[in-house]
Amino acid sequence: MQAVRVHEGGELRFEPVADPEPRPGWVVVELRTAGLNRRDLLVSKGVYPFPLPLVPGSDGAGIRRDTGEDVVVLPGLYWGPDDNAGGPDWEILGGPSDGTYAELVTVPVENVARRPAGWAWEESGAFALAALTAYRALFTVGRVRGHETVLVLGAGSGVSTFAVQLAAQEGIRVLVTSSSDEKIERAVSLGAEGGFRYDDGDWPAAVREATGGRGAEVVLDSVGSTWPESVRASARGGRIVVFGGTGGAEVTVPLREVYLEWRSLLGTTMGSPRDYAGLLRMLDQGSIRPVIDSVFPLAEAVAAQQRLTGDHFGKLVLSIS
């Protein structure tokens, strides 16, 4: 098969690789598309010390070789029975196990699910990681309810485009932040009420003003370095749900503003099989679709990753066959 692999020094090579052999209880999927995630950049840069060479990529959709079914690949392997957290063997596909930047991938049989009806291959291969992360952050961990306001930091990412749609479908008031008026407008078209420029003065104060002085009951923060601002933008008893650190690995938090106002900092990554079942129910009941920024051939994975570091909106996808 043809695949893209990460080599020493972070070099991505499009090259022939031996076909994967499924273990007992595993299946081979002939991939049609693969979605990019920021995690792929971290894998390529060596932030995660996985053995190399390695096929990155967590999202994908294709045809299950043994049954001929159209399926979506679920990226979270070995979650286990506890919905509070993944088990000791939990990992994300695409490091250390070879992922979806390839013509073929092998995964446990429980990690393939039906392809959403009516979706294009580009959509099917680009939603599982981001949509599942958004669902769990909002509902399982954030416990957002219909009368509350959720603030989504960074309009335009894959997770944020799903978070806006999922929350809006449930009648929840959604606000966003961005450095781009255009991205805020696009988030509004997905269901957000409005947004704030995070490069334009004191945006937490603007959030509080827009919420009648309360702040947002739930803040979704994938930046990390914005924790102090997220705390100030949140309501008394609010929940700041964290699932990324694009702004850096360390941050200083004003503790008194957390415990004296009954706020919670909650960490989450992806989701359990039960979370995925809840996500599918929401997809079946509404009109949520992945927002596709652009599609690249598998051989142009380097260019696709460069686009992922730039001014994109929504998901980037590799077309495989």
Textual characterization of the structure:
This protein has 321 residues and is α/β, with parallel strands linked by helices. The protein folds into two domains: 2-127 and 290-319, Medium-chain alcohol dehydrogenases, catalytic domain (Quinone Oxidoreductase, Chain A, domain 1, Alpha-Beta Complex); 131-267, NAD(P)-binding Rossmann-like Domain (Rossmann fold), CATH 3.40.50. It is built from ten helices and 17 strands. The strands form four sheets. Strands 3, 4, 5, 8, 9, 16 and 17 form a seven-stranded mixed β-sheet that branches. The chain has a six-stranded parallel β-sheet with strand order 12-11-10-13-14-15, with helices on both faces. Helix 3 (128-141) crosses helix 4 and helix 6 runs parallel beside helix 7 (227-233). The N and C termini lie close together (12 Å). 48% of the residues are buried.
